[in-house]
Amino acid sequence: xxxxxxxAGPERYVCFRLARVMRxxxxxYEGPMAAHGITPGQFYVLNALWVTDGMKFxxxxxxxxxxxxxxxGILDRMERGGFIQRRDDPEDRRSLLVFLTDxxxxxxxxxxxxxxxxxxxxxxQFPREEWEIFLRVLxxxxxxxx
Length: 146
What we know:
Layout: H1 14-34, H2 40-51, E1 55-56, H3 57-64, H4 68-80, E2 84-89, E3 92-100, H5 102-106, H6 108-123, H7 128-141
Antiparallel strand pairs: 1-3, 2-3
């Protein structure tokens, strides 16, 4: 008994299709963001810190939905790039706090303008109504249990 080609292949599964789209969109953002010394993942972390600077590591990981070991690598690179610094939490010696540096804070307006421009370019490929439906579908897929 072989595998039926009509029921096999990654394009048949939503997880692979979403992953492919994510990789393509991220790749689209990578070049322009690299010109500013960051990756899309680092931009995501910076966004959280622009809203709440000095977050506990665990809170930051939860906020950006990135596991601890992956976030550690991202923060290592961001710290080497001068965007953030980690400090011991004076209230809990087992915990670290993540703070923006002046460079990380000052990069905000320009990086946000860049991300908004890239978003407009991606959205511009679709009629507004289709884009709004797409966002609603993504929101429904992101609920717990799915």
